[in-house]
Design goal:
By secondary structure, this protein is mostly helical. The chain has nine helices and no strands.
């Protein structure tokens, strides 16, 4: 008979290892600020943040699913192929919340500082949902294919995420459009690859948000490495 306390301890360790607690707290903070705004104004301004937040959680939950599958069935790599595709496809939706600053302007009776704080809370949540899910995937790929491939995978995912943010914010493509309008998406991509000078915005936006995600990810990995060194010393 399984020990309930041992199961709870394992669940707790899993949540700690995958940053579940701080991410849930960040979601609660962002949600509370948005609900406070709804209450103060009796209007549904910024309601798009609810949908954007839901999409931001998809890659993180996909990464947790992959981590559980890999932990239980480490030799059945084929089990994580589809959820890994879902993770990569939806990954840009997490840091995409950074671009919701686009909608910032004074909307009385709510003071501007309130909306600044609210949007900052959603941006923070989205960015860290992205890097936390990348951390999980990086670890799994590294275990399967080695350290070098793991870092190449992480860097490639960060670059793809930056490009995905551009496709979503400036061309209005959604992740699921890959299934419904693949030819049109491919055409937009090929045009920008063939004429980089005419589409400098594409490369600027991609590098900007990929750079933000990369720096944040390196900070997270550095803190993690320092903790490991302190334990070993």
């Amino acid at each position: 008979m399984s020990n309930p306390f041992a199961s709870l301890c394992r669940l707790h360790r899993f949540c700690v290892n995958h940053l579940v607690y701080p991410l849930v707290l960040s979601a609660l903070l962002a949600g509370a600020l948005l609900l406070g705004r709804f209450y103060l104004t009796r209007r549904w301004d910024f309601r798009f943040l609810v949908w954007d937040s839901f999409l931001a959680w998809v890659p993180y939950l996909s990464a947790l699913t992959i981590a559980i599958l890999h932990q239980r069935y480490p030799r059945r790599v084929w089990l994580i192929v589809i959820p890994s595709f879902v993770w990569l496809l939806f990954l840009p939706n997490a840091p995409y919340l950074l671009t919701d600053w686009w909608h910032l302007h004074e909307r009385k009776p709510v003071p501007l500082w309130y909306d600044v704080g609210m949007l900052a809370s959603f941006a923070w949540m989205g960015l860290f949902l992205g890097v936390a899910s990348l951390r999980t995937m990086h670890s799994i790929v590294e275990k399967i294919l080695g350290r070098v491939i793991g870092w190449l995978f992480a860097l490639g995912a960060i670059g793809a995420s930056g490009f995905g943010i551009y496709l979503g914010r400036f061309l209005d493509w959604n992740s699921w459009d890959v299934f419904f309008e693949p030819h049109n998406i491919l055409a937009d991509i090929l045009i920008r690859l063939a004429h980089p000078i005419r589409h400098s915005q594409t490369y600027g936006v991609t590098m900007l948000f990929a750079g933000l995600m990369l720096v944040t990810y390196l900070m997270l990995k550095s803190a993690e490495q320092r903790k490991v060194e302190q334990i070993e010393s």
